[in-house]
Amino acid sequence: MRLLNASGCLDALTAPEIARSLDAFVSKTVTPLPREGNAPVRIAETDVGMLNSIGLANPGRDAFLSETLPQLRKLGVPVWISVGGFAADEYAETCARLEDVTIELNLSCPNVEEAADTAASIVAACRAATSLTLYAKLSPANWDISEVARAVQAAGADGLSLVNTIRGTALDERTLEPRLGTWSGGLSGPALKPVALAAVYACWRATHMQIVGMGGVMTGRDALELVAAGAQDVALGTVLFRDPDATERVRAELAAELAALGVADVDTVRGVAHEGGLAPVLSTSQ
Q1: Is 109 a catalytic residue?
Q2: What is the pTM of this model?
Q3: Which pLDDT band, with edges at 50, 70 and 90, does 114 fall under?
Q4: Pairing of strands 210-213, 233-236
Q5: Which residues contact 93 (CB under 8 A, 6 or more apart)?
Q6: Which among 9, 109, 126, 203 is annotated as catalytic?
Q7: According to the 3-state scheme, what is the secondary structure of the chain?
Q8: 34-80 residue pLDDT tens
Q9: Residue environment code for 140-176, b if the CB has 16+ CB neighbours within 10 A, otherwise e
Q10: Angle between helix 119-129 and 88-96 (nearest 10)
Q11: How far apart, in whole angstroms, are the C-alpha atoms of residue 214 and residue 265?
């Protein structure tokens, strides 16, 4: 199991030591043209997590490829590039210009206008444009996310990133006006964990694809549960804002959880939520 960061939750060039503690670094989403992002206020804390309305602020594809990506390669860890756009050809054009990276297609940002094309058509266009590994990052807002997972698998995706944030809002205590400049944003943090577990469980059952599980991962136990639901790898998101050393802590906590359960290797736990839980694993290891 690898530990990654969720896209947008870590600036590797500002905090390279944290990026190097990961097994792979995932960039902020890159769009064809530069984006200033949404109007402030862009971040609001809630009792159950964090809302963000960044709006895919980034320097654009050309500046990213010429300036940012060469610096990211110097980190010494595998680099994943989060690719965004507003039509299938925009995604594909960016993918065609990438080399020696894993691509995560951001198909589900809740605080910008949705891409006009379907997730499957975007994946198909990108598959035609590149032979690089493609992960599709899906929204938990779709009631039957497993149907979307099957569609992107058929279109050529190699894996899934589950899940992106889900839309939420928060009101000011005094004025009762929305606290975010765009009134709503993407909810992340502990409240997202049950949603992420449901998505990973459903998509693993439907596709058996490689899955990066994310959403509300605060502890090693959270990571373990996502793996049990079907995730091969796990990404840390909101927790990195509160605890920059979360990577090593989560690794240590995960090892302690496995030891307490009598399991030697986390990979043996993958998908056990579908297979009678831990009992069959423990019986075959004894």
Answers
A1: yes
A2: 0.95
A3: very low
A4: parallel
A5: 32, 61, 129
A6: 109
A7: CCEEECCCCCCCCCCHHHHHCCCEEECCCECCCCECCCCCCCEEEECCEEEECCCCCECCHHHHHHHHHHHHHCCCCCEEEEECCCCHHHHHHHHHCCCCCEEEEECCCCCCCCCCCCHHHHHHHHHHHCCCCEEEECCCCCCCHHHHHHHHHHHCCCEEEECCCEEECCECCCCCCECCCCCCEEEECHHHHHHHHHHHHHHHHHHCCEEEECCCCCCHHHHHHHHHHCCCEEEECCHHHHCCCHHHHHHHHHHHHHHHHCCCCHHHHCCHHHCCCCHHHHHHHC
A8: 999 999 999 999 999 999 999 999 999 999 999 999 999 999 999 99
A9: beeeebbebbbbbbebbbbbbbbbbbbebbbeeeeee
A10: 30
A11: 20
b/e burial code for range 233-268 (CB count within 10 A of at least 16 → b): bbbbbbbbbeeeebbeebbebbeebbeeeebeebeb
The amino acid present at 201, given as its one-letter code, is Y
Domain architecture of the chain: domains with CATH: 3-39+55-172+188-285 (3.20.20.70)
Question: b/e for 49-71, b at 16 or more Cβ within 10 A?
Answer: bbbbbbbbebbebeebbeebbee
